[in-house]
Design brief:
Largest sheet: none
Order of helices and strands: HHHHHH
Oligomer: single chain
Number of strands: 0
Structural class: mainly alpha
Radius of gyration: 20 Å
Length: 93
């Protein structure tokens, strides 16, 4: 009986990783905000057409989602090292 309880406890302990549950992922609202900011930048500053800006911003968003765990981490790391912006700027153009 003790072995069953011990095995059950170990299984529950290792399968319920609290670090992963506490991590905050990208929300749909944050993704929308990033995309809108990107579109505005691409059209107004870079003078892209709407179709080109759409493709560029989807590419940028994909890179941000892959590289950073959430928006807060992305903002902090980019603020520390602004050269990280070149990763998607050059990769998506």
């Amino acid at each position: 009986m003790r072995k069953i309880i011990l095995i059950t406890f170990c299984f529950l302990f290792f399968s319920c990783n609290t670090n992963q549950k506490n991590s905050i992922k990208w929300t749909d609202t944050e993704k929308d905000e990033i995309f809108k900011e990107c579109i505005r930048f691409a059209i107004e500053i870079d003078k892209m057409g709407s179709e080109t800006a759409n493709k560029y911003c989807y590419c940028t968003l994909d890179i941000l989602l892959e590289k950073y765990e959430n928006k807060q981490i992305a903002e902090e790391q980019i603020a520390e090292d602004p050269s990280q912006r070149l990763v998607w700027y050059e990769g998506c153009k």
